[in-house]
Amino acid sequence: MYWGMGAYGRKKKLTAPESVVAVEYSYTVPGKTEYKWEKNDLTMQYWFKHLQDIFNCHKSNYIHFSDNSSQFDIDDLKQLLGNTAEVYIENTGCYTFNQMILQKFSPLEKLSFRTSIFPNSTIPEGILMQNFDKLQIGIAGTIPLDQLLLTNSKIVCIAGLQQTAKKLNKFIRLWQSGSNPRMEYLSILYNIANRGDKEVIMKGIKHAIIPADHERKFKMARNGSPKLVKGGIDIVRVDGVKATIRYHPMPSLEMFVWFDHCVMET
């Protein structure tokens, strides 16, 4: 690896690694065994393809960008890794690099990120409006209600949300009126919860309490693992689609939308 001029300035270029280390672990024997090749002259592309052949995995299903990723040339990374179904972006050290990840690896089926990857932790509306199968947002802070209404993904997971119970009540009311029509599953993990929030969230919303011993199976998008839904609060959208809201002590809220293709036999 060396420093050279990439498409976006001076970046680390991917070349033949000076050495290659393989680590073997065993379920039956404690410890590990390391194998090391010195003065290797095979390219990074060769080793990547070699590993893909060994494990019969010819596509990058998931790419995680984290600390100091922005030191590398994005075009080199794209050429090496190719297309992928899912990207997770943490603090890479550069807002511009984060934006280039989204441009170079688009389209995506699943996108996960921390809000801090954007200037002022403000999520671009164009990201929220994309048709992801899954959108996962971490350390969300305060997300305006109008931004929540822009989400157009099937699965939406938000952690660290600072949102009032009244705003969540309004979100549910607007969903009942037809907003977020593609959403099949919503998960919100709050930072702060107050006593009586459940009552405020459901205030004025017609609903039915489902007994805790009543079980239903929910099929997640893209062949995700089915979820067993025990009890909950049922609500209905204007077009007749039913949803179930469940609360957890973390505190968190889940919302399951029972489209026909999401219903599984129990």
TrEMBL record:
Residues 124-188 form the Sdz-33 F-box domain. InterPro entries: F-box_Sdz-33, Zygotic_Embryogenesis-Asso. It holds the Pfam family FBA_2. This is Sdz-33 F-box domain-containing protein. It comes from Caenorhabditis brenneri.
